[in-house]
Amino acid sequence: MKISLNWIKKYVKVGISDEELIRLIGARLVEVEGVIDETEKYNNIYVAKVISASKIPDTHLTLCQIDVGAMGKFQVVCGAPNVREGMLAAWIAPGAVVPASVHEDSPFVIGKRKMLNKYDSDGMLAGADELDFGDDHSGIVEIDPNDARPGDLLKDVFELEDKVLEIENKSLTHRPDTFGIIGFSREVAGILGESFDFEYQDTTLKPGKDLSVKILNDGICARYTAVVLEKHGEIKKKYLSMMDTILSKSGMKPISPIVDVTNYLMLLTGQPLHAFDYDKFVAVGGLNEPEIVVRLASKGEKLVLLDDTEVILNDSDIVICSGTKPVALAGAMGGKSTMIDENTRNIIIESATFSLYNLRKTQMAHGIFSEAITRFTKGQPPYQCLRVAEAAAEMLKEGYKVATVADTMTSPERPISVKVSLDEINGLLGTDYSEKLVIKTLTNVGFVIRPGFYVTVPLWRTDIHIKEDIIEEVGRLLGYDNIAPVLPLHGTAEKNPNLALKTKVRDTLASFGGNEVLTYSFVSGKLLEKAGLDTKNSYKIVNSISPELQYIRQTIVPSLLEKAYVNQKLPVEKFAMFEINKVYRKSEGMNSENVPKEEMKLGLVLAERKNQGTAYYAAKKYVEELLKVLNIKFELLPLKNTAPEALPFEKKRSAEILVNGEVIGAVGEFKNSVKKNFKLLDYLAGFELDFLKLVELYQPNAKVDVSPVIEKRDLTVETNKTYGEIVAKIQAILDKNNLVAEISPLAIYQPEEIKHISVHLEFKQKPDDALMAELEKIN
């Protein structure tokens, strides 16, 4: 968005330098991405009177004598067909730069030339395109003799010595009122501590009964105003106007009197307008009288737009119809069938506000990024629809008169009132502002303060709802940089156990060789399916930013598997990645606020190129060492869990992790189908744990046995039981004899039905022969 400082100064008394004003706007309102300095763009360009114009035989050229006031008289050869004796034109003097080329790498400097080897030509008479006032190259611009005299500087006549701000739109997404110069200027006045006096006059337009407007769907259009204008004369666009220069500086092009008025008022007020050809509108619908219908499009409907593009509509698009026939894509672009042209007699001025959510979908689906839809997608309030339509009728009254009006509002506007106190304002901001200063600051930008400090929010401020919003307004307008930085007085805050454990887990896994990654919570349906998960258990995002980010993930591991494929391409022999993050699944239902329940998971995936061993034990070692650091005792049992985090694992080569009989996760190798889907190495394993359960189970103050290992023994058991069951029996005997030993696997050998399970024991106390004999009897 481009904002002219000169235009702002028409509404605000500015008593500081442009540089300081720009700084304050950037600090207290919106990010200023750049400043286009046009203070010298129109230097040495003058108003000139053509005192004679003679055609040069056998050419399209005209030999002109011009009067430039105190500058003197000059001869110019001009190729424009509209040059004539007596007119006022814009003369670019020799040595001046053609304005349209000012920002080019090689600006075009006008000189004194001899034309046709015969006629001297001093400078040039300029067209609108050369002056950077649009694309019109049909002739030279003509200046109203009531506005200027020969010799006047063009930049003085049209206030062209200006600076234009390039504004970052996204930082004003919640402020639709600032997308018009009136709303922007109101904020500048508030920042400068000045009152802002602009107010709409009471409307004289009265809705009639002979124009029908129907809004067929709830929530798509808060207000639709239509004004039918009947032609009674001609609007002749003869002279260069201030409106032309404002449109050009704002990044738009002068097109025609009607379109220019709608664009000018949009830039002024922030309220987009659209003009339909009335007679075409009625004819398209096959009606005797116009019936304007606002509705959602049917999927597959087609519409040819003003730029000749045919769009296939979605069921989220809003269309304006003549009866049943779509004639415009609401808020985005008009249709070809009702466009204004040179034969237009009567028009319909549309002033409406549409659902920003629908229009955002329309914008993305059809790639339309016009000035109008940019404003509609910020949520234009309906309060000024009728007034702006009336302003358009007033500006077009030379050629049109109001025939009839329709104004349909689906729900009445009610101002919001917010209760706040001076103590709350100063307490939250850390200031000691007086009541007088606070009231003046808020009043300057349209708030009304009633006794008891009840603040009535103006209808254009759709972002103000609670007292904290009011407090923020005071701080912003008076300048956060003016608030003295003081450390708050409070006691030592308690540590957040969640954050503390995150830090400990991160440090621990990193010390084991793991690398932390952060991946999107949004994933594709293909990713879930590749990991063996059911997409029906994932929440689908209706307005996803990408087809690859349509679902919210159920578990962490699939995202890590996707990154494992990227990392295995790197020249490393092995790697381990982990992530602590949130997941959501439909099977968990909603919380008390009716939003999806949030879970926190810890996932890890490891891979190695040349290892021919069993990857399960490497992942199991990570789990054992991590839980040992956290002082959490656990057991491993055959994987029977059917929760989403268990689905990617191969049951025969994986285990579920239990603490006090409750499953808190799974560890193991991944299914061959999963490895194939992700194109991963054979040596691959991982785990996923319920992080919030770890927070509950973590014992930071538990005593850790740091006594040295006294004796090491190996034990082999012949059995038909699982390794886990044998370890449980060994642990039971150790507990009975008050002995501490670490148990780790050595080998599992099964030549026939009976397995040979070998374990390694590291004792903290010396075992006697009776204990070893009892252990050897285990089967």
Can you offer a commentary on this structure?
- With 779 residues, this protein is α+β, with helices and mostly antiparallel strands.
- Helices cover 26% and strands 27% of the residues.
- The strands form 10 sheets. The protein has a 7-stranded mixed β-sheet with strand order 25-28-29-33-32-31-30. Strands 5-4-3-6-9 form a 5-stranded antiparallel β-sheet, with no helix packed on it.
- The longest helix has 15 residues.
Features of this protein?
36 strands, 779 residues, alpha+beta
How are the secondary structure elements laid out?
Blueprint lengths: L1 E3 H5 L8 H11 L3 E6 L7 E11 L6 E6 L5 E6 L9 E5 L19 E4 L3 E4 L1 E2 L28 H4 L5 E5 L13 H12 L19 E4 L5 E11 L10 H8 L7 H13 L3 E5 H7 L6 E6 L5 E3 L5 E3 L5 E5 L2 E5 L3 E2 L12 E8 L1 H11 L4 H6 L8 H11 L4 E10 L7 E3 L2 H8 L5 H10 L3 E3 L3 E3 L10 H12 L18 H15 L3 E2 L5 E2 L1 H6 L20 E2 L4 H11 L6 E10 L15 E10 L6 H15 L5 E4 L10 E11 L2 E9 L1 H7 L5 E7 H7 L13 E9 L3 H14 L4 E9 L5 E9 L5 H8 L3
Parallel strand pairs: 11-14, 25-28
Antiparallel strand pairs: 1-10, 2-10, 3-4, 3-6, 4-5, 6-9, 7-8, 12-20, 12-21, 13-20, 14-17, 15-16, 17-18, 18-19, 22-24, 23-24, 26-27, 28-29, 29-33, 30-31, 31-32, 32-33, 34-36, 35-36
Write a brief structural summary.
With 779 residues, the protein is of the alpha+beta class.
Relative strand content: 25-35%
Number of helical segments? Answer: 21
Category from helices, strands and their pairing: alpha+beta
The level of helicity is 25-40%
Mean of pLDDT: 92
In the sheet with the most strands, the strands line up as 25-28-29-33-32-31-30
Uncertain stretches = none
Number of β-strand runs: 36
Largest sheet: 7 strands, mixed
Task: Measure the end-to-end span.
Answer: 80 Å
**What general outline do the C-alpha atoms trace?**
elongated
Rounded to an integer in angstroms, the radius of gyration calculated over CA atoms is 38 Å
